[in-house]
Write a structure and sequence with these properties.
alpha/beta; 6-stranded parallel beta sheet
Length: 382
């Protein structure tokens, strides 16, 4: 099969680029003809020599760090159309480019699959206020206008999980159900076998991610302060891994609370913290699909996460592989942290369940097979 990914940055930037590299390498290893069409260089990462890459010529610098300058638009899609035709591309996985223009560039010669890397209902003050004022019906009507191009100009609109796919189907009153699907992202690391997780971990809690206000890491600091007596007595540590514009504010909160055993680690390779931590925490106001939670679970970290986006329903359920916290109160986080810290058998059981869940759902081989099955169905007209 001849498969083309379209991204803005190559090889790294965000979740879409990470997934692109993971899938592109796997498809190439499976013997498929794989291409990546991109706009700007960013970072370095190993990519299979069997993956062909193409950078759009004469691109100006991105606006606000990531957006396409208007003067480059025509050249991008002219070159994309020529590339599709000259390489006889069959399937386009569009990660970021404008849906109508990608569909037009495909010109009916390639199947187009648009991927959305965010939640359907964004949990933000502005959107929540708009929903309250307009009511559910009219709010969904407005969302349908926003999402319509992704459905109209595609052969499949790909959501991050079934929960999001169901929400899009509801917004369109099931008019486009045949086009709307979900596809889980693969874990970016090879998921360890259970026997490789038997070594003793540190008494450690970790947060991994950007330090932005919407991540609400301050809630986690207040929760940590409430379990600090246990932390000091039992030698627990709290690692905060990441950078961002909220870093100084968070350090100030930690100092004012006089938090003990809290370590701001900056940007680091997160897998080292997954390996040594027992608990992963998140209080994000919203997420697309929280792959840091999945990655942590793969390495036997038990997640404790704010239940603020519907994707979490498919990851954590029945308190068997982690905990959903149904409020943003620090005391609710600290209650669960205290429970896990003091119950080793519970921690061990949930660690095993978390790893097993990841091996069952997020292995790259499984996800790649799901994509290839989708391509076969599209080729057959299903």
């Amino acid at each position: 099969m001849k498969i083309l990914f379209t991204v803005r940055f190559y090889p790294t930037y965000g979740g879409g680029e990470t997934v692109t590299l993971r899938l592109a390498n796997k498809f190439a290893d499976m013997g498929h003809n794989v291409h990546i069409f991109y706009l700007w260089d960013n970072g370095k990462q190993d990519v299979s020599q069997n993956v062909q890459t193409y950078k759009v010529s004469k691109m100006h610098s991105p606006i606000d760090g990531e957006n396409i300058p208007k003067q480059d638009t025509r050249d991008i899609y002219t070159e994309l159309e020529l590339y599709i035709k000259s390489h006889s591309i069959e399937f386009i996985i569009n990660q970021w480019l404008e849906p109508r223009r990608v569909y037009q560039a495909a010109a009916g010669t390639a199947k187009v699959l648009h991927c959305r890397h965010a939640a359907v209902y964004i949990n933000s003050k502005k959107r929540n206020l708009a929903k309250k004022i307009l009511g559910n019906y009219w709010f969904d009507k407005i969302l349908s206008l926003i999402y319509r191009p992704y459905v109209r100009y595609s052969d499949r609109f790909v959501l991050l999980c079934q929960e999001y796919a169901n929400e899009i189907k509801h917004i369109f009153r099931h008019k486009y159900d045949h086009k709307i699907i979900s596809m889980l992202n693969p874990c970016r690391y090879d998921i360890p076998l259970p026997e490789l997780l038997q070594g003793e971990k540190e008494n450690a809690v970790c947060y991994v991610g950007r330090l932005y206000p919407e991540k609400q890491v301050d809630i986690l600091l207040y929760a940590w302060k409430q379990v600090e007596n246990i932390a000091i007595k039992e030698g627990w540590k709290f690692y905060i891994v990441g950078n961002g514009k909220a870093l100084e504010d968070l350090q100030t909160v930690s100092e004012k609370l006089e938090c003990k055993n809290v370590f701001f680690e900056g940007y680091q390779e997160p897998v080292n913290y997954y390996k040594k931590s027992k608990i992963f925490v998140s209080a994000s106001a919203t997420e697309g699909y929280p792959m840091t939670i999945v990655e942590a679970m793969a390495y036997g970290c038990v997640p404790v996460a704010a239940n603020t986006y519907t994707a979490l329903d498919g990851i954590l359920f029945d308190n068997t592989n982690g905990y959903k916290i149904n409020s943003l109160k620090p005391e609710d986080f600290s209650k669960t942290l205290r429970l896990l810290m003091l119950d080793k058998s519970l921690m061990d059981s949930m660690k095993e369940n978390a790893n097993e869940f990841c091996r069952k759902n997020y292995e790259i081989a499984k996800i790649a097979d799901d994509w290839i099955e989708l391509f076969k169905n599209l080729r057959s007209g299903l």
